[in-house]
Automatic annotation (TrEMBL):
<keyword id="KW-0407">Ion channel</keyword>
<keyword id="KW-1015">Disulfide bond</keyword>
<dbReference type="InterPro" id="IPR001320">
    <property type="entry name" value="Iontro_rcpt_C"/>
</dbReference>
<feature type="region of interest" description="Disordered">
    <location>
        <begin position="934"/>
        <end position="956"/>
    </location>
</feature>
<dbReference type="GO" id="GO:0015276">
    <property type="term" value="F:ligand-gated monoatomic ion channel activity"/>
</dbReference>
<dbReference type="InterPro" id="IPR028082">
    <property type="entry name" value="Peripla_BP_I"/>
</dbReference>
<dbReference type="InterPro" id="IPR017103">
    <property type="entry name" value="Iontropic_Glu_rcpt_pln"/>
</dbReference>
<feature type="transmembrane region" description="Helical">
    <location>
        <begin position="644"/>
        <end position="662"/>
    </location>
</feature>
<dbReference type="InterPro" id="IPR001828">
    <property type="entry name" value="ANF_lig-bd_rcpt"/>
</dbReference>
<feature type="compositionally biased region" description="Basic and acidic residues">
    <location>
        <begin position="937"/>
        <end position="956"/>
    </location>
</feature>
<keyword id="KW-1071">Ligand-gated ion channel</keyword>
<feature type="transmembrane region" description="Helical">
    <location>
        <begin position="846"/>
        <end position="868"/>
    </location>
</feature>
<dbReference type="Pfam" id="PF10613">
    <property type="entry name" value="Lig_chan-Glu_bd"/>
</dbReference>
<comment type="similarity">
    <text>Belongs to the glutamate-gated ion channel (TC 1.A.10.1) family.</text>
</comment>
<keyword id="KW-0813">Transport</keyword>
<dbReference type="InterPro" id="IPR019594">
    <property type="entry name" value="Glu/Gly-bd"/>
</dbReference>
<dbReference type="GO" id="GO:0016020">
    <property type="term" value="C:membrane"/>
</dbReference>
Length: 956
């Protein structure tokens, strides 16, 4: 326990003594007259009716916080004693050992003005003695069953959850993904306190705490400068440069920033954020401390500085504080002073409310808990021993610059950010304030918060010197010993350079290549163990490594495909049937038959070409419909309804025949290579041997997922044809980028077949194991795309994502791919996946067929309605004939059918010529005049009629 000031200072008693337990001790003895004048200056006398109440306060009088609290409490006691006539307060200060205050001074209430850890210890003592204790600090996370454990403890300060959420919002604004937490170990910012709160608050934005630097109380360290320097030096090996000072005394903060400046940790690309425990003293520290904190961001809770009560307190505080502590740099009261004043005020008014001398400590506790007043630090109300926030606190965000600090804006959990020169909240980010922020090292732009490479310390990038497919990474060695080499080339190298050229518009990224003839697993291990900083190449990243990398935007497709030898397709006897699927052929035939029936029905009434025996009528209709597929028909069409049907049918014919011709032409002109093996199940059943690239994860995938037993490693691209020809392998499984390159070279001999298994991709990769960074072309089994990936939290990952999007949008990536394939042997029949031309299905034509059928049906319905109308009109012209409504249903239907069959709906019709009516039945000599169908009697339609028989009718 640190040795602190111990004081006993009853201001209203006749004796006034101060005992300092530190290296200096002074005892004042005043004459009786001076004591009497002192009492007069307080404006009150201690009479028999006045009850003196002793209050104990445990503070750290050596610290700035303790000094402010001491002066504020004295002012509160003085103000109360000047106004109260029934009670007088006697305030006793102690650095520790609350038992002495309880036993010797008989204090009726305690004020714990130190840390939460010491408040908890004091609460244990006060609970045993049943003395209310008012704590000016609060636990970051309220301990479970705190009220049952410490029933006499009252917390005047709120917990740190809102303050931590403000820090998380700042980090989210600038997308800093990895941070280092720093705190002084007093159980206030420990694992159960602010650190756990911060970790939880950062989860929503994907930010993690990379490292925690814990300091013991600085008073317990014999050599603070050397100790702090050694601890801060441990941060140099960390990649993150975002430092969050969660909880610190002013003394530790002074040492911390001085040593961090000396080690270069408060410079370009670094970020420092301090909480209220430090930022609340920015007004009171001298310029030497401020100079070491340049560019730091700070937050502190906003309290009202308006009103008469605050102005009176502020004026008296500055006078007393200047008189007692002239060595201090600033005399302005902070939030700690305001809370200390409110704590005395709460106890004093609870005493007044509790009544006379017969009150108990429990009654006094209940009076304190029922407090409800507007204090200098805000509204004071309690619930369950904790301060109730009447409104969500607002935090001020400041930026240390020059000799003081600038006020940037404000933040509230329910309202968001508000910039200082605006009047409204609502922004979810403070990134728009970046132009107003002065960052460490006078950096222009937002710091990366990450260790960035320099010319003196460039990225050490290892690349494979013996890649299986040299089109992706190729290293040409100048000697047999593998010492000299030419600059590496290949598709992955080109993509890296293209993205880097975009990235360098914002900042430089110095690097050096180091080719190495080793397995890909060894290359990755060399990055993990910090031998190299990066790896570029066609490196495979397995699923169990994906947790250590952060992927960027993909720059190439991926998947696994089967490649087998190919042979020409000689079975073309039924090629003419392949342009259409079976469903397409069936529906086309049905639509044609339906159209034929509609044409026959519409035409046989008035068109002689469609009359005659049933066999002749059907053959004529079928020939008419089918011949329209190839040439113009010779039969003339007379019905307007038929013309509509035929026009739509001819359009259908045009589209279908054109599509058929195009599809058949493609099938006949494109060379067709048939794979020798198409079924993976056959390969498994026959226990065939398949090949793959030995330096990739494909071998394990074939065995564990596709369940192949005989899998061999082929190695270089040139070895695959040899293995196929020698019969060592029946099929090979290649990743799609490799497959494209291989089939481009050997398109006349091999083809791809079977399904494509999507699982990974090429990109640049880095790992955060042991804080090392790496790039590389990779396979990611999780997402099934080609990515660039970086260390978790690395800002370079986001920058490379933007760079890849840029080269993809401006066409640079496409040109790199084209250049890759243009370097290969050109094949006219090259197709990386299949040589088959898909047959046309019904899905492409169902709308056309539906339209044709609908129009044909509508025309049929219109014609039928017209026929029914004509049929009914024919009876109205012959009054002696029984109307259809008076006959049976079957008779009516039969008569209507005969009516249609005999041409009762012919239109237009011709009347017979005069003098030739007797030859009306001879079809080859018929002459018709244009007449209305209703004018044609049954005599004209059916020839001579039998003698009429008069049928008597029954009179009604």
């Amino acid at each position: 326990m640190r040795h602190l000031v111990t004081m006993s200072k009853p201001r209203i008693l006749s004796q006034f003594s101060t005992t300092n337990g530190t290296s200096k001790s002074t005892t004042f003895s005043f004459p009786l007259l001076f004591s009497f004048l002192l009492v007069l200056s307080h404006g009150s006398f201690t009479t028999a009716e006045t009850v003196t109440v002793n209050i104990g306060a445990v503070i750290d009088a050596d610290s700035r916080v303790g000094k402010e609290q001491k002066v504020a409490m004295e002012i509160a006691v003085e103000n109360f004693n000047n106004t109260s006539t029934q009670h007088k307060l006697s305030l006793h200060f102690q650095a520790a050992y609350a038992e002495e205050l309880i036993k010797e001074k008989q204090v009726q209430a305690l004020l714990a003005a130190t840390t939460w850890h010491q408040s908890a210890l004091l609460a244990d003592v006060s609970t045993r003695a049943q003395v209310p204790v008012l704590s000016l600090s609060a636990a970051a996370v309220t301990p479970p069953l705190a009220q049952l454990r410490w029933p006499f403890l009252v917390q005047l300060a709120s917990n740190a959850s809102h303050q931590v959420n403000c820090i998380a919002s700042i980090l989210k604004s600038y997308k800093w993904k990895r941070v280092i937490a720093i705190y002084e170990d007093d159980a206030y910012g420990g694992d159960s306190g602010m650190l756990s709160l911060l970790s939880e608050a950062l989860q929503s934005s994907g930010t993690v705490i990379e490292h925690s630097l814990v300091f013991p109380p600085l008073s317990s360290v014999s050599n603070p400068d050397g100790f702090v320097r050694d601890e801060v030096a441990k941060l140099l090996v960390k990649k993150s440069r975002v430092f969050i000072v969660l909880q610190s005394s002013l003394s530790l903060a002074t040492h911390l920033f001085r040593e961090a400046n000396g080690l270069g940790l408060v410079g370009r690309d670094s970020v420092w954020v301090v909480t209220e425990s430090v930022s609340s003293f920015l007004d009171s520290v001298d310029t030497s401390v401020i100079s070491t904190m340049q560019g730091a961001l700070g937050i502190d809770q906003v309290y009202s500085e308006s009103g008469g009560s605050f102005d009176k307190f502020r004026g008296k505080f500055k006078g007393v504080f200047r008189a007692e502590y002239p060595e201090e740099f600033s005399y302005e009261p902070g939030i700690h002073a305001l809370r200390a004043y409110d704590s005395v005020y709460a106890i004093a008014h609870a005493i007044e409310k509790a009544g006379g001398s017969n009150r108990t400590q429990k009654v006094l506790l209940e009076s304190i808990l029922s407090s409800n007043f507007a204090g200098l630090s805000g509204e004071i109300r309690f619930d369950g021993g904790e301060l109730i926030l009447q409104r969500i606190p607002v935090f001020r965000i400041v930026n240390v610059i020059g000799k003081r600090y600038n006020e940037l804006g404000f933040w509230s959990s329910d309202l968001g950010f508000r910039e200082g020169n605006t009047s409204s909240y609502g922004s979810e980010s403070m990134e728009a304030w970046s132009d107003s922020v002065h960052w460490p090292g006078k950096l222009r732009g937002v710091p990366k918060g990450w260790v960035m490479p320099t010319v003196a310390t460039p990225f050490r990038i290892v690349i494979p010197g013996n890649s299986s497919f040299e089109k992706f990474v190729k290293v040409v060695w100048s000697d047999a010993l593998g010492k000299g080499y030419s600059p590496p080339t290949g598709f992955c190298i080109d993509v890296f350079h293209a993205a880097l050229s975009v990235l360098q518009r914002s900042y430089s990224l110095p690097y050096e290549f180091y080719p190495k003839n080793d397995t890909y697993e060894a290359l990755v291990e060399s990055v993990i163990n910090k031998t190299y900083d990066a790896v570029v190449g066609d490196i495979t990243i397995l699923a169990n490594r994906s947790k250590y990398v952060e992927f960027t935007q993909p720059f190439a497709e991926s998947g696994l495909s089967m490649v087998v030898p190919a042979k020409p397709d000689e079975s073309k006897a039924w090629m003419f049937m392949k342009p259409f699927t079976k469903e397409m052929w069936t529906v086309t035939f049905l639509v044609m038959v339906y159209t034929m029936v509609i044409v026959w029905f519409l035409e046989h009434q008035s068109n002689p070409e469609f009359r005659g025996p049933w066999k002749d009528q059907l053959s004529t209709a079928l020939w008419f419909t089918f011949s329209s597929l190839f040439f113009a028909h010779r039969e003339k069409i007379q019905s307007n309804y038929t013309k509509v049907v035929v026009v739509v049918w001819l359009f259908v014919v045009f589209v279908v025949t054109s599509s058929y011709t195009a599809s058949l032409t493609s099938m006949l002109t494109v060379p067709r290579l048939q794979p020798t093996v198409t079924d993976i199940e056959w390969l498994r059943r026959s226990n065939a041997t398949v090949g793959c690239d030995g330096d990739s994860f494909v071998k394990d995938y074939l065995r564990n997922v596709l369940l192949f037993e005989n899998v061999i490693e082929v190695g270089n691209q040139e070895n695959y044809p040899k293995k196929f020809k020698s019969g060592n392998i029946t099929a090979a499984f290649l990743e799609l980028p490799y497959e494209k390159v291989f089939l481009k070279e050997y398109c006349d001999e091999y083809t791809a077949t079977g399904p494509v298994y999507r699982f990974g991709g090429f990109g640049f990769v880095s790992t955060h194991l042991n804080s090392s960074l790496s790039f590389g072309c990779l396979e990611n089994e999780i997402q099934g795309k080609k990515y660039i990936a970086f260390q978790k939290g690395s800002p370079i990952a986001t920058d490379f994502s933007e760079a890849i999007l840029t080269i993809s949008e401006n066409g640079d990536l496409k040109r790199l791919e084209e250049r890759l394939f243009n370097q290969l042997t050109s094949c006219s029949n090259y197709n990386s996946t299949t040589t088959e031309v898909d047959s046309l299905s019904l899905q492409s034509f169902w709308g056309l067929y539906l339209t044709s059928g609908a129009i044909s049906t509508l025309c049929f319905l219109f014609f039928l309605i017209r026929a029914i109308k004509k049929y009914c009109d024919s009876f109205r012209g012959n009054p002696g004939t029984m109307t259809p409504s008076r006959k049976g249903a079957w008779n009516r239907m039969a008569r209507f059918v005969r009516f249609l069959r005999n041409g009762g709906i012919r239109s237009p019709a011709r009347a017979p010529s005069i003098g030739r009516t007797q030859n009306l039945g001879a079809r080859d000599s018929m002459k018709w005049e244009l007449v209305s169908p209703s004018e044609i009697s049954d005599d004209h339609l059916q020839g001579p009629r039998p003698p009429e028989i008069e049928i008597p009718t029954r009179s009604e």
